[in-house]
Amino acid sequence: MESLTDQKAKVDVLFDRIHARYDLLNHLMSAGLDRRWRRRLVRLFKQRCMNHGQGATVLDIATGTGDLALLLSRKVPGLRITGSDISMKMLERARRKFDRYQRTIQLMEADAMQLPFDGESFDAVTVAFGIRNVPDPAKAFSEIRRVLKPGGCFYMLEFGPSQSRLIAGFMRIYFRTVIPFLANRVAGDREAYQYLTRTIESFPCGEVMAGIIWKAGLHTRVAATMAGGNVYLYEGVKKG
Hints:
Layout: H1 4-18, H2 22-29, H3 33-48, E1 57-61, H4 67-75, E2 80-85, H5 88-100, E3 106-109, E4 122-128, H6 137-147, E5 148-159, H7 165-186, H8 190-202, H9 206-215, E6 218-226, E7 231-238
Helix pairs in contact: 2-7, 7-8
């Protein structure tokens, strides 16, 4: 069995390989719905997390090319946002994107399982479609709890297999055939996206995932399901 260090290195290399076409492939594979899913998260953030006031600190883990961090900065003015990711090449693309839209967001290379921040540093933590690529998600959730202030908010978007057998069967075919085909044509990297789709099929979701996050000390619920139950929006809070 691979060590956590080996798994982490493999994920780092994988995202460095696909960074140039990552945004385009995400939009193609989701028919543009990934934008709608992020907006759903941001709307919930605005409804539930604004008690922290102007200048609230937000950590966006596995920020990738920064889509969620950028959306938060545009829709919720005044936030102080830090985006972290294990891939430097993804962060470089995020930085160029932020410069283009004239957004000031701090970026940092960081391992989600060992965050380089003091305890109780952030009012909120977000992560969109990145936690399933962390070798030990439970360790990442423990780190999220550590860096959150008491009463801090946690929001996560993640894929998972639908509870509907019909939809799950359709999506299995889609993930195993259509996505690798698109990845090969657009990015020339069929293998990387085959790996990413395999993680979707086997990743815990729904109440099971909410329970895993609860064990790490974040009171969490499934706030919404989308895409026929293949996308989950989780909401949590650090009590005490």
